[in-house]
Automatic annotation (TrEMBL):
Keywords tagged on the record: Transferase
Limits of the Methyltransferase domain: 48-143
InterPro entries per the UniProt record, alphabetical: Methyltransf_25 (IPR041698), SAM-dependent_MTases_sf (IPR029063)
CDD domains, sorted: AdoMet_MTases
Protein name, per record: Methyltransferase domain-containing protein
Amino acid sequence: MPQGTIWEKEYRQPKLLAPTDKPQKDTLNFFRYLRKKHSARLEDKPTILDIGSGNGRNANYLATMGAEVSGIEISETALRVAQHEAQKKNVQVKYTLGSFGDTFRFPENSFDIAIDVTSSNSLNEAEREVYTQELHRTLKPGGFFFLKTLCLDGDKNAKNLLKQSPGPEKHTYIMKKIELVEKVFTRQEIINLYTPHFEILELSKKESYTRMNNRSYKRLFWIGYMKHHR
Ligand SMILES: C[S@@+](CC[C@H](N)C(=O)[O-])C[C@H]1O[C@@H](n2cnc3c(N)ncnc32)[C@H](O)[C@@H]1O
């Protein structure tokens, strides 16, 4: 089943996501870090791209803080929820329906900041190449990037999933109940993927819980703070 169809089904009948309209905590920490260490403040109205914006919990929040936000999302249902919430909050966010595994519909150097909050781990290798290239093209020189993505190093649940239901590409597994393919990354894979275009300012591991069929699983995530090369 195409991954876009899987996400659409997921938003219509959630099995994996626990929808909330509260902004994601690690994302908030990143914006605190930018303020403290790089004097980059949301009140200065940076342009921000939210990659896989889902129900808009992060994009809409960032817009309420003054940023000029755009979001790309593959699920029409999620996009509609995000737009509705933006209206309720009385903010403008430019939501685009489409895949971030395809060419982004934005000119080069459009954004000061991009965020990818557990979104790109469902891309395949060919799409991931387009996504990193497009991120590089549309982020301004010296712009910042926040990444939260699935981690392989030290994650027992990830190792079990890789063994029990391997996916079509390296370090991927298929989540059987929903047929979603996910990739888990080693530290070296993150470094290889992003250092051609980014300086990695911080890369840490964070333990969080994910839900599947009403059960919680402990998982590890990479939290990356990056700066686009000039
Ligand atoms: C785990 S959810 C995270 C959503 C959001 N970033 C958040 O923190 O709430 C992953 C999101 O990425 C979207 N997504 C996955 N693959 C995509 C693709 N190729 N293009 C656009 N959106 C995609 C999914 O529909 C989903 O909304």
